[in-house]
Amino acid sequence: MRRLSLVLLACALSAPAVRAQEDQELSAEEPRRLLLTAWGGEAFGTTAARSSGASLGGEFGWAFDALDVSVAGYGQQNLSGSTGGWSPILLLRLTERFETRRGFDAALSLGIGGARSSHWEAYFQVALGVRVPLGPLFLAGELAFEQNDAFRAAAGLGVRL
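Request: output the structure for the sequence above.
Response:
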């Protein structure tokens, strides 16, 4: 009985030291803040004047605790008013992330910037999305409502560094 008491006392005294070491190891790990995402999808027109077309692009951003600030660049086919071919779109995006109980993030993004169809003009975007973490990689999906009577469905592959 005496040995059991000594073993229990030794375990109780060493537990705070082990917990402190684990906390130091967790705090030493730097959070991954840099975001790089490749996007691909389709932009659909909601009127007869706006046809659908492919959309390809990339996004570079910085992740804060619950907000991402990024710069996104897209090439979009058949943008309203374009003469055909690909039109560039550049946006500053703010993304609010919400962690769900299922282990993935829901996202609401607001984008403001410019697009060039026949000439450069202001361009706006509101997007709802989801991110599924896979270690440092993540899969993303997004439905964006954009200027010029269009919405865009896109899938992305990203990495957090």
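The longest helix spans residues 2-28.
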